[in-house]
Amino acid sequence: MAKVLLVDDELTMVQMVTEMLRAEGHEVFPYTNFKDAVAALEIHTPEIVVTDLYLDKTRAHGLEILQKARSITPPASVIVITAFGSIETAVEAMKNGAYDYLEKPFKLDELNLCIQRALSYNEAISENLYLKKQLKKKYQFSQIIGTAGPMQEVFKMIERTADTDSTILILGESGTGKELVARALHFNSKRQFAPFIPVNCSALPENLLESELFGHRKGSFTGALTDKKGLFQEADGGTIFLDEIGSMSSTLQSRLLRVLQEREVRRVGENVPTYINVRVVAATNEPLEKKIKDGTFREDLYYRLNVISIQMPSLRERRDDIPLLAAHFLRNKINPRSGQSVQITRQALDLLTTYDWPGNVRELENAIERAATLCEDNLIQIRDLPPSLVRSLGQPPSASTALSADVAQLPQPTTPPTSLVPIQTAIPGASAPLSVPNGTNPGATPTLHADLSLKDYLREQELAYLNRTLALFGGDKEKTALHLGISLATLYRKLSEDERSA
């Protein structure tokens, strides 16, 4: 059952309670001496402590035991008993963290019931802490998949801003993971144990959204049958995530501006404001500057929201992350017909890497889900990918039906570090950092190319290095791509750009 430490200076009392508790299946450690009991707390780490408040009739040693019991790891639930009961001593004990308070004389059944309630309380607290730890682990920003340069910048911004109270505006196309970043900000902040409330501002009509956000008084409008707390009040102490903020009406924009300025809300039909302590994280897939010019979004609200902005890159801006994401989505994917894990061919993976993904990561996840469900022999091939994707890349009909056993070696979907790493070591599959090309002296003064822009010069150097590496491997593009730490499709694309520019 439980480990119970019992402390009382009356030997008869200790013997009687010990017998009762052991009959209930508890492991009991009985003491009549204050110093021995304190030392035993560290040795036995009991779940329950039952202690007399006045062990020598003059000094409240029980309060010292209470404080010590609450300081051990994990802390024990303490039930204080005393023959010198008064409301003052009860309040003092409860203020110091006692679970409950019993006055002598008490019935053994009362003590037994009190211990059972304390154990249930401990179990609920432990389960709650476990779930919160699991939730935090799930939304650690290091769990966001991506090692490309643009994603490294996102990680850097999350790391810098997570534990602040600054308002955050997350920008990016649909499907780039804006809500995932908002959750990472919350669950890695000091507000992590308070509520996280997501709100889709485009999903509700204006009058209903106003009531949802700010609450209402009973009778303030037709259908308001009871008082209702708004989501801002529900999120008190935590974070509210306002997704698709650009779709909010001008009336609600005005009310939101006041919330951000005054940190208070007024329910619909109520004039008395309520103070709130809420961090606001907003997101949009629309250019708010254009909406400001059109007169559909308040400029002052934009500057209140855009204290710190985080730009989410599109998937086409981080193509090297596609194999990592594919590995992540396939990690626990089981074919429903065979019950076995699913793999993907190199040809299908190259096609995924070449596609532009207008729906971004969400579209990629859906494509993997579809292919894993439809594939035969637990192997995703080109024919299993969405037809619209295959057609958009101009694949011949034979390519979508051809069989291949060339299984792609996906990178392990490891989590990125919490701080920036050199890009060359962050490329999936890279065997070593890029080195200085042969014949180049790192300490030499660079030649000035006055006829080239920086972009053209870097492109020229990249192509020269690609061609040198390709020659080193005798024209074997697969080995070249593996050495460079890029996908085969990326290598083909870069080489084709060279041919087009020639």
UniProtKB/TrEMBL annotation:
<dbReference type="InterPro" id="IPR058031">
    <property type="entry name" value="AAA_lid_NorR"/>
</dbReference>
<dbReference type="Pfam" id="PF25601">
    <property type="entry name" value="AAA_lid_14"/>
</dbReference>
<dbReference type="InterPro" id="IPR027417">
    <property type="entry name" value="P-loop_NTPase"/>
</dbReference>
<keyword id="KW-0238">DNA-binding</keyword>
<keyword id="KW-0547">Nucleotide-binding</keyword>
<dbReference type="InterPro" id="IPR001789">
    <property type="entry name" value="Sig_transdc_resp-reg_receiver"/>
</dbReference>
<feature type="domain" description="Response regulatory">
    <location>
        <begin position="3"/>
        <end position="119"/>
    </location>
</feature>
<dbReference type="Pfam" id="PF00158">
    <property type="entry name" value="Sigma54_activat"/>
</dbReference>
<keyword id="KW-0804">Transcription</keyword>
<keyword id="KW-0597">Phosphoprotein</keyword>
<dbReference type="GO" id="GO:0000160">
    <property type="term" value="P:phosphorelay signal transduction system"/>
</dbReference>
<dbReference type="InterPro" id="IPR011006">
    <property type="entry name" value="CheY-like_superfamily"/>
</dbReference>
<dbReference type="InterPro" id="IPR025944">
    <property type="entry name" value="Sigma_54_int_dom_CS"/>
</dbReference>
<keyword id="KW-0805">Transcription regulation</keyword>
<dbReference type="GO" id="GO:0006355">
    <property type="term" value="P:regulation of DNA-templated transcription"/>
</dbReference>
<feature type="region of interest" description="Disordered">
    <location>
        <begin position="391"/>
        <end position="418"/>
    </location>
</feature>
<dbReference type="GO" id="GO:0005524">
    <property type="term" value="F:ATP binding"/>
</dbReference>
<dbReference type="InterPro" id="IPR002197">
    <property type="entry name" value="HTH_Fis"/>
</dbReference>
<dbReference type="InterPro" id="IPR003593">
    <property type="entry name" value="AAA+_ATPase"/>
</dbReference>
<dbReference type="InterPro" id="IPR002078">
    <property type="entry name" value="Sigma_54_int"/>
</dbReference>
<feature type="modified residue" description="4-aspartylphosphate">
    <location>
        <position position="52"/>
    </location>
</feature>
<dbReference type="Pfam" id="PF00072">
    <property type="entry name" value="Response_reg"/>
</dbReference>
<dbReference type="InterPro" id="IPR009057">
    <property type="entry name" value="Homeodomain-like_sf"/>
</dbReference>
<dbReference type="GO" id="GO:0043565">
    <property type="term" value="F:sequence-specific DNA binding"/>
</dbReference>
<dbReference type="InterPro" id="IPR025943">
    <property type="entry name" value="Sigma_54_int_dom_ATP-bd_2"/>
</dbReference>
<dbReference type="Pfam" id="PF02954">
    <property type="entry name" value="HTH_8"/>
</dbReference>
<protein>
    <submittedName>
        <fullName>Two component, sigma54 specific, transcriptional regulator, Fis family</fullName>
    </submittedName>
</protein>
<feature type="domain" description="Sigma-54 factor interaction">
    <location>
        <begin position="144"/>
        <end position="373"/>
    </location>
</feature>
<keyword id="KW-0067">ATP-binding</keyword>
<dbReference type="InterPro" id="IPR025662">
    <property type="entry name" value="Sigma_54_int_dom_ATP-bd_1"/>
</dbReference>
